[in-house]
Amino acid sequence: MRRLAPGNPPAPARSRWDRGTLLLGLALLAVVTLAYANHFHNGFHFDDVHTVVNNAYIRDTRNIGRFFTDARTFSSLPSNADYRPVVTASLALDYWLGGGLRPFFFHLSTFLWFVVLLLLLYRLLVGVLDAARPKPSNSLVALFATGLYGLHPIAAETVNYVIQRGDLYSTLAIVAGLLIYQRWPDGRRWGVYLLPVAVGSLAKAPAVMFAPLLAAFIFLFEQDASPALWKDTLRRSLPAVVVCGLLLALQRAMTPAAFVRGGPPLGSYLATQPAVILHYAAQFLLPLGLSADTDRQPLMGGLDRTALLGLVFLGGLVLAAWRTARDRVTRPIAFGIVWWLVGLAPTSLVPLAEVENDHRMFLPLVGAVLAATWGAWLLLERRLPRGTLAASAIGLLILCAIGTHRRNIVWRSEESLWCDVTQKSPRNGRGLMNYGLTQMAKGDLPRALDYFERARRFTPDYPFLEINLGIVRGALGADTAAEAHFRRALALAPGQADPLYYYARWLQSKGRLGEASSLLEAAVKASPAWLEPRHLLLQTLSTLGDAARVRRLAQDTLLVVPDDQTAARFLTRPTLFPTDIEEAEADLRQRPTAEGYLNLSLLYHRAGRFQECIAAARSALGIKADYAEAYNNIAAAYAGLGQWEEAIRAAQRALVLRPDFQLARNNLNWAEQEKRQQGRGARAGPDSGK
After folding, report:
1. What does each C-alpha distance from 118 to 89, 146, 515 come to in angstroms?
2. Residue 85: CB atoms within 10 Å
3. What is the DSSP letter of 76?
4. Residue 7 pLDDT level (bands cut at 50, 70, 90)
5. Rounded-to-integer distance, Cα 395 and Cα 402, Å
6. Are 577 and 602 in contact (CB under 8 A)?
């Protein structure tokens, strides 16, 4: 290996965009696109629920300015409302472009920025390698490293997880900042390289790790050996340190007091991190154990064997970084190791709700691919024929592409994702519960209950589990047990919106409207951006005939979502649905929505126009395929026509989508009873409604 004196750095060679490299780059981009081709229609998962699906603020682009002044707009759950205005703004744009919660537009947006990251990363890596040893082969080595990053299954954890695009944006900001610093020396005096970092910090706080990474870059690649080496490095990186410190202070100042980071005691969290980092490294080398929600628990009684192995591994990394930093040719390895450790620092040193999360590897992965690729190249470039090296590189990238493609399949639906979690993290109570939810959605209530009970063994005091136990037991007819679970959820999470809403929804289905309205008012106050409690409260108050409260709530809802059709309808007629069918039909011609067609089907049903009721409900399903209320109206209309088989099928479908839907269950029971009697005897009226 040719060694160069640290005090005589070579001038960085200009990267070569020759025709061959360009063609290989285009081919690599095509492979990345093919690897991710099956992910664009994957669903929303996990934290996407409260930040995307239930977050009313992203439904109106006029809120974009507010995202930068009010962090409560980030989530429908105040305890999760972090300050990430760039992420929230991007979600609002995706919602606007897609005309609603259409996952394709959200995934397309994330993927396009992922491609931009890969393009900038390639340019940065070429510059780093040229600073160490300028050779024409550097462009190919950098291209392979970029491909390894873009195709590694670890990256798929972030690319598939919509709300975690914050990791992508912050990583992009760091790469862009370093690239500008590296390629445009004349712009350094104006601090231009800090602009993407400032934007990235408004997407996710780890973007401020740019400061130590810039210091490492300056120390390794832009300094001569001298007694003032450390002092000069600090002087040149000081602007970044100051700006990143101010950005971090802004992040903390803008984070609401209600935000709860969670996490175990600091000592237990830190004791667990060496083993976590060792796990991350193992997944980089062999990504077969990736899990969307791991079951690792914090260490409470000192270090165990895995933690000790992790400490040894960390010590080995620090030693390797020190040794490789001594020779300019091997300094990209040192820089990669530093990047890995610095990228992990925010989630390793600050206690978070989970001690381990595989999507946290997205930023550190840049350092891992740089260190591993350059180290392997220096080791093998003169030991193996170029053809063998090329074939091995292509084979490795193909294996990664296959792994990413398969990982995308895991993220396709809630059922596939949480099934994978239960297999790889079998002691994760939340994972077991979420898989049980997928079974409840399919109508398999006994199987759902089994998974909920299994989850209780690992998370006995989990309020969301108590909520779901209440829902499934209520759907099974065990009302006393259901109410006990709902009340326990309230006790475990006092003041939180979810237990208030779901308990109120159950009470409303039982006709206990006064109790339900009180809980719903508390839910709206606890989570102003969540529309479902608002809509249910509007319906409940309307049924109670409280026109004044309906008007106040509808007006307040329209302040949050100005084009909310449900609130607008109740504001017009606060104690009843519109009875003018022609008016409803005219509104739909101007603005066809699933809610509008559902309302029209109800009007048709009340007028005895059952076939038109069915047609309107099917139009609602054409817009919103999982609309349980539309299936219920179809069931009610078929029952009105005396077509019991069709009524039963529609009611069953409504219950598959929403097992605790009491109106649909009433219609199902009534249709089954009438079918048995073959139309003889008295008939009760069907339950229909929104």
Report:
1. 23, 6, 55
2. 20
3. S
4. very low
5. 11
6. yes
Is 340 in contact with 367 (CB distance < 8 Å)?
Answer: yes
Domain membership flag for residue 126: yes
Instruction: Mention every residue, 6+ apart, whose C-beta is less than 8 A from residue 634.
Output: 601, 613, 614, 617, 618, 646, 650
- What gap in Å lies between CA 419 and CA 416, rounded to an integer? 5
CA distance linking residue 191 with residue 93, whole number of Å:
29
Residue among 624, 675, 625 nearest 649 (CA): 675
The per-residue pLDDT of the chain, averaged, comes to 89
Residue type, 522: A
Burial 536-570 (b: 16+ CB within 10 A, else e): bbbbbbbbeebeebbbebbeebeebbeebebbebb
Gap between the Cα atoms of 688 and 248, Å rounded:
53
Q: Taking the CA atoms of 386, 388, 389 and 391 in sequence, report the sign of the dihedral they define.
A: positive
Is residue 463 a contact partner of residue 498, using CB atoms and an 8 Å limit? yes
CB-CB neighbours of 489 under 10 Å: 25
The pLDDT tens digits of the residues spanning 180-192 come to 999 998 889 999 9
pLDDT tens digit string along 315-357? 999 999 999 999 999 999 999 999 999 999 999 999 998 999 9
Question: In this structure, how many other beta carbons lie within 10 angstroms of the beta carbon of residue 94?
Answer: 23
Domain boundary among 383, 407, 436: 383
Q: How many CA atoms lie within 13 A of 494 on its CB side?
A: 1
Number of neighbours of residue 514 by Cβ within 10 angstroms: 10
pLDDT at 289 over 50: yes
> Domain boundary at 383, 412, 443, which?
383
Domain extent, residue 199, equals 43-383
Beta-carbon contacts of 95 under 8 Å, excluding residues fewer than 6 positions away, are 58, 59, 101, 105
3-state secondary structure 642-655: CCHHHHHHHHHHHH
- Please give the Cα distance from 376 to 388 (Å, whole number): 13
Q: The domain spanning residue 653 has which CATH number?
A: 1.25.40.10
- Looking at residues 621-634, what average pLDDT do you find? 89
3-class DSSP state for residue 425?
Answer: coil
Is there a domain that residue 584 lies in?
yes
531 assigned to some structural domain: no
Residue 372 lies in a domain: yes
Among 344-348, 430-434, 501-505, 675-679, which stretch is predicted with the lowest mean pLDDT?
A: 675-679
Left, alpha or beta for 51 (phi > 0: left; psi -120 to 50: alpha)?
alpha
- N- to C-terminal Cα separation, the chain: 74
Alpha helical stretches, state H, 325-444: 331-349, 364-380, 386-410, 414-424, 429-441
Q: Quote the number of domains for the chain.
A: 2
Q: What is the pTM of this model?
A: 0.82
Cβ proximity of 224 and 7 under 8 Å: yes
Going by C-beta distance under 8 Å and a sequence separation of 6 or more, which residues neighbour residue 559? none
Q: Are 500 and 533 in contact (CB under 8 A)?
A: yes
Using DSSP, state whether 627 is helix, strand or coil. Answer: coil
199, 190 contact by CB (below 8 A): no
